[in-house]
Amino acid sequence: MVEQQAPWLQVVKMLVAIVVSWVASSLLLGTELPIFAAIAALLVVAPSVHQSIGKGLERSAGVLGGVVLAWLASLTLPTGPLVVLAVTLVAVLVARLLRLAPMAANQLPISAMILLALGAGAGPLFGFERVVETLIGAACALLINLVVVPPVQHEPAERAMRETAYAVADAYDRVAAALASHDAVDGERLLADARALRAHVQRTRAAMDALEESTRLNLRARALRERIARDERLLLTLTVLVNRVIGMSRTVADRFDASVADDPIVHRVGTEARRIAHGVRMLVDRHALEDGRTTTMPALDGPALTTPIAVPQPHPTHWVLIGALLEDVRQARESLEADGAGE
């Protein structure tokens, strides 16, 4: 999986945080090279305010541990490259034994190594100043993340939701086409395509989790609460629809043959599958209109969902096939109607 680059806004915020923390540390502490402040600012500026606070606490804990370890080493051991190497290795082991968070575990040996290399033996104030320097850098980064347009990861979540919804709709269209086919149906391919929708749902779930994370302690998130709750309901609906279309695809793969393509009940099921597909697209497009975004979905004559399918009597041969399809259609209809697609 290829990691996405940080957006330019995030890069600019990192640059500003580094400069501000450098200047602030120089003015407050009189440090010529406030390296720890710059590193803290670089690491603490995160995609969300909540993450920035967490990173700041973790990094500060790691720096404090590294400073203490380096200070003790400078008081008891002679200076030299082997001492720096030994203390760095000990710091890695200490971080592992204490089960520190990843950022704190990485920062502890880094801080110890840098402090010894820069001259921790210069006195106890040297280590204390590095702690203060780190706190200044973390505070500057957090302040900038609060003030400079705190990012809310809503667009990636909306994009993932829309892609998933249209993929689900396409799957129902494929089932409808298979039910109307008088030729042999590649049931295994149909089922594999339906099962692939689970990956779409997982990606959308991850995008929604990132959105939720970005709204914590974020003042801009208040206006999005209703939209986030609505999108959570939509994701739940899509999850149900994915399970149902997988069931329909499995039924087609296991039991369908072209001889039932002309059966009126099977024909109704196919029609309903197409209307479910349309209902899904209509639902996400309606959300787009509510959010002020444009949509180009063509209109479909008739209601999104028709009345429930009535079966006068079971099919003498394919009653299992038809019964399974009808049950999946029923549950899909109920899920869509609960989310307002049938309005």
Automatic annotation (TrEMBL):
InterPro entries: Memb_transporter_dom. It is found in: Membrane. It comes from Agrococcus jenensis. Signal peptide: none annotated. This is Fusaric acid resistance family protein. It is a multi-pass membrane protein. Its main location: membrane. Keywords: Membrane, Transmembrane, Transmembrane helix. The chain crosses the membrane at residues 15-45, 57-74, 110-128, 134-152. It comes from the Bacteria. The lineage of its organism: Bacteria, Bacillati, Actinomycetota, Actinomycetes, Micrococcales. GO terms for cellular component: membrane. Residues 24-144 form the Integral membrane bound transporter domain. Coiled coil: none annotated.
